[in-house]
Amino acid sequence: MTAILMEVAQVLLVAFLAPLFAGLLRALRAILQNRRPAGCWQNYRDLYRLFHKESLQAEGTSWLFRFAPYGIFAAFCLAAGIIPILATGLPLAPAADVIALVGLFALARVFQVLAAMDTGTPFATLGAHREMLIAGLAEPALLATLFTASLLSQSTSLSVIVAHLEQLRFALHPSMVFAATAFFMVLLAENARIPVDNPATHLELTMIHEAMLLEYSGRHLALMEWGAQIKLVLYVAIGIALFLPWGIAPAGQLTALPLTLTALLLKFAAAALALASVETLLAKLRLFRAPEFMATAFLLGVIGLLSFFMLGA
Amino acid sequence: MISCLPLDLAIGALLLWLGLGLSGFLLGGWPTLARRLIFPLSSVVALLLTIAGFTALTATPDNLLLRGPLPALPWSFQTDPLSGYFLILLGSLAFAVSLFSTGYFQSLPGLRLRRLLLQYHGFLLGMGLVLLANNVFTFLVAWEIMALTSYFLVVTEHEEADNRRAGFLYLLIAHLGALAILLGFVVLAGAAMAQGGPFSALLHASLSPFWASTAFLLTFFGFGAKAGLLPLHLWLPEAHPAAPAPVSALMSGAMLQMAFYGLLRVDFLCLDALAPWWGPLVLVAGLATALFGVLFAAIQTDMKRLLAYSSIENMGLILVAFGLALIFRTHGLNALAALALAAALYHALNHAFFKGLLFLGSGSVLHGTGSVAMDRLGGLIRQMPQTAFFMLLGTLAIAGLPPLNGFVSEWLLLQAFLLSPALPQSTLSAVLPLAASGVVLAVALAAYAMVKFYGITFLGQPRGARHAHEAGRWERAAMLLLSIACVFLGLFPDLLLRLLYPVLEEMLGQGLTAQPGWWWLTPISAQRASYSPVLFFLGMAATLGLSFFMIWRFFGRPLRQVAIWACGFPVRTPAMQDSPLGFAQPLLRIFAPLYPTERVEDADSRWRLRVGDPVYRGLYQPLNRIAFWLSAQVLRLQRGRITLYLLYSFLTLLILLAIWR
What we know:
The structure holds two protein chains of two kinds. Chain A is mainly α. In chain A, about 70% of the residues lie in helices and about 0% in strands. Chain A has a two-stranded parallel sheet with strand order 2-3. In chain A, α2 runs antiparallel to α9. Chain A is globular, with a radius of gyration of 19 Å. Chain B has four domains: about 1-135; about 145-275, no CATH class; about 295-535, no CATH class; about 615-660, no CATH class. The N and C termini of chain B lie far apart (about 55 Å). Chains A and B meet through β1, α3, α4, α5 and α9 of A and α15, α16, α17, α20 and β3 of B. Chain A: It is a multi-pass membrane protein. Chain A: Keywords: Lyase, Membrane, Transmembrane, Transmembrane helix. Chain A: One of its GO terms (cellular component) is plasma membrane. Chain A: This is Formate hydrogenlyase. Chain A: GO terms for molecular function: lyase activity.
């Protein structure tokens, strides 16, 4: 029973705190760039405004256009129930391992791309094929890093990986260091962050993710934006589960919860700081430099795998 | 009596198909009657064959020997779990394809329809016989029936020179492959053993490692030619667009799997003197094929050509899994080999269903719009909503997305790859996860290609083809069945894996570990990896329903239709969307060295980019030149003077005598 409650609590927590994390990131970035931030809560105000606005449907679009925002949002909510964030061994956790989780993200992405192509506008299709390209090149790198972690713990279930890695107690695994670097690069690419994409861009020609949302408005746009914020949190949560799992207790241990929450808070704050500084220090790459970025990530992942086999750790 | 049921049933079904083909030929004078009568009956027969396949899985292996025209070469047939599994594949796909054909061949003139009916059923018969054949002789005859009838089906529309050329290329490569298979069998069976003996006599044929490897390479080449292995894939993208859609569906969904069946039957079951390099060879060849196939699928502008390249990719993935199984078996890890083999067999069935569905759908698009050229299509989701929905399911399935079936086999394959540390050889176990990354790249790019396939054809605005109409009732029924199959195999993988147990038992003497329940997929242990498509689907449906309800409840307001925002430009034409080649432009740029491109000026003085197949230019054209040069050299012998020819005979005799002595 406690496990189910924790499951629900985790999904709600991720869904409703994701805008806060994205807002924190925005605020930190503004401070680092000598701008005055709009505050951590700006994303909530944005979502509130969008939800209360009228939604428009572009002429000639089909049911896919209307369905996609809900589908994407639902996919990320489901993923929020699978990744061990508050606790390991949640009831939904065995439903999908790491590979199925990557498949779930791919499903959400394909719906987003199809919805963009449904409008048939030049910029949306431009964004669509760029998104598929970045994702197609990022996926091998992502799987290479996940393989490193799962070879180490002999499991592809995130819950088991976390439980296994926690026992290792702060030992530095060379393979995991490489994998973590590669994962961080994939995280940047998959979440449309600098240097691959710019979430704050207003120039259509350089857009990737934003270009696909051009036709959305009102509650549909709100769902898309919210979904993207949840996705960012989920990626950070996967990164934490793989590389900094200490503090996540098994489900049902309510006594461990305060410690878990404190650790989680610190980890997410650190992640926000890291992301904000990366986005401040780096410039956006030209689109055709992005494959090199992905190739670097892939190579780091491969080095991680090889060092696992050579050093056994 | 019960024990010989599956074989009798299967042979009966094949004879019925033959009868249907012949009566279709006779009924050709009444085309509507022939089409409406023969094809549904053919579906019923396909169902019988499927039932035969199911019973063969559990029944004891059974065989039948018939005296043939030649005393030393009897016809020999058998059923065992392996052929039973492929009979299910063939029967269930043929069931849907025959239903589809009932509606599809409406406009075919009578004369052509009667020939098509004969060839179509001959093709089905040939594939069925390949699965039942129990000796080399029967197998090769069946193989030839399959190759020849499919050649005639490919050139159904033989008025067009392109189709004839495609047919010839197919025939050429098919026979090159058949020749290699024949030679492989010769090596395998040896001079000592009669060719009439059953396949089981080939088992444990005491071959020296050299001859075993020769036989392996020859048969791998031969079956690879049928499966579309990398340099031999060239016929696929030519033959599939030329053939009518149901034929393409059968060729791609079932005939390619006959090649895989041959590999399993001959190279896995008969050749057990395994050399350690066979597995890696198959794996590397498969991976190269998969990556090549998907990179070229992504740039095609013709629906059926795109699907043909995608078939190459999928066969590549099956070969990767097969190679992995070989590697594991060489090192005595039969449990792991079972997992890899299960992934390959699962993917074979998946591919039959989703590729069949997509080919049939492209046939409906051809009928609806008069074109399968993607630069003339677009927006069909509004004119053909049901076809578009079925095709969406097929696209998601082939792109390897959960909770559909393509994902299950991909997942099983990756799990098998992750078990590579169990291998005693450290280099191999370290390199295998890299191959897994290659598989992931192929699957991710397959999503790219299939999103393009669906998005360009069914979404956006029409690009100039005439107004489409929805597919007919029979066609929709067939597509509905295949999409249900895709969803079912995606949601209940354990049910299919249970069917696979006897096959794996037969091939490796070992099945997979038992599952905790039908809604779980835990091939190794629940601790190691688990995936529950049902839970996944229910979770998705629940969150979807809940979010939809909440948002509708609190923020629901009617949608307002507005014009699309065109970034401030006053004009917006369909040409401003991505063209099929434009969608693939990033790939063209990143993998530029792979793609031989040329710019040609068309009739309207516009530059068009044309991308060919590098293998054709890099391998086939030089080979062609060498062949012509050699022929020219041989021509010198031919002088047209009888005295010279007599001299040749004399010299030949002399040389033969010298050798004989």
